[in-house]
Amino acid sequence: MAKISPSILSADFSNLKEEIGKVEEGGADFIHLDVMDGIFVPNITFGPPVIKKIKAVTEVPFDVHLMIDRPERYIEDFIVAGADIITVHAESTTHLHRTIQYIKSYDKKVGVALNPSTSLESIEYVLEDIDMVLIMTVNPGFGGQSFIPAMKRKIQRLRKTIDDNNLDIKIEVDGGVKLDNAKEIIDLGVDILVVGSGIYGAEDVVQRTKMFKNI
Ligand SMILES: O=C(CO)[C@H](O)[C@H](O)COP(=O)(O)O
Ligand SMILES: [Fe+2]
User: Which residues of the sequence carry a binding annotation for a divalent metal cation (predicted)?
Assistant: First the structure.
């Protein structure tokens, strides 16, 4: 069964404690935190101080998606704030291998994210070092966009590479995941679904989280 990582990007930022409580009640496996710096992506969200505050209101592990330029500058801050999994973009750091080892030196799980146009070959030589690959299925920066169909091929190819080489890597998919395409995406071999507007856009967020869990 796929795990669910609700993204608070589409939650009510004035009421994060209650918003996180709803997905926790619905059975969320992770809380997905979209950190944007206005440089790597054309939007700005929040950073370590906010993460530190909300860490205190939930037991659910934090899945931190860094959409920031040169993330190695802030890794320690995000770990101190409460990140359990840290995902950096392959496009955002010149020395990806070094950044991965740096995150691992803190004994944290590490993921690498790929923009839609970035090929899987760019992470070929770090696959044995990472815990997760995050396939962006929209261009990063905003919630509520549509799933890019060509990403299905990318997910399938990654699934095959992981299975053929007996790698211990989870596949996370992020962007445009809705109730009506979730099953098709899971069937491609995805382990973790990030869902933002598909959960927080619902009238009943608890119920909607449960519906995703039951797919
Ligand atoms: O990383 C992201 C955007 O850059 C978000 O996690 C993602 O877009 C989730 O939102 P939605 O489910 O509404 O597409
Ligand atoms: Fe994300």
Answer: 32, 34, 65, 174
